[in-house]
Write a structure and sequence with these properties.
Blueprint (H helix, E strand, L loop, with lengths): L2 E7 L4 E2 L5 E2 L3 H16 L3 H4 L3 E6 L4 E6 L31
Antiparallel strand pairs: 1-2, 1-3, 1-4, 4-5
Length: 98
């Protein structure tokens, strides 16, 4: 399995991933990066909006970057299930029912 490295970039710090993670393919690496972003954003969305994760492969080639500001901070919901609280994206307030 290929190894992917997930380097965290903030305005003041570059934190390299020295060990990497073995994943099936680039699609798996993208999902892993998204999961890491969501975890790091929890309860500090404004602080992390300017952060990004740069993803490299085992040959040190950059594969993609994921900007925190582009990730909607939602929990991952299994297909066919409903979230416990349905919220409006724009306001964060519960939707009114007709």
């Amino acid at each position: 399995m290929p190894t992917y490295f997930f380097d965290l970039r903030t305005p003041t710090l570059d934190i390299p991933d020295p060990e990497g993670t073995e994943l099936r393919d680039e699609a798996s690496a993208r999902e892993h990066a998204r999961t890491v972003v969501l975890e790091l954003m929890k309860h500090r969305e404004m602080l992390t909006r300017s952060w990004r994760i740069d993803v490299r492969d085992g040959e040190n080639r950059q594969r993609f970057e994921l900007h925190f500001a582009n990730i909607q901070n939602t929990t991952l919901i299994a297909p066919g299930t409903k979230p416990a609280l349905d919220t409006e994206f724009s306001t964060g307030m519960p939707r009114s029912t007709p």
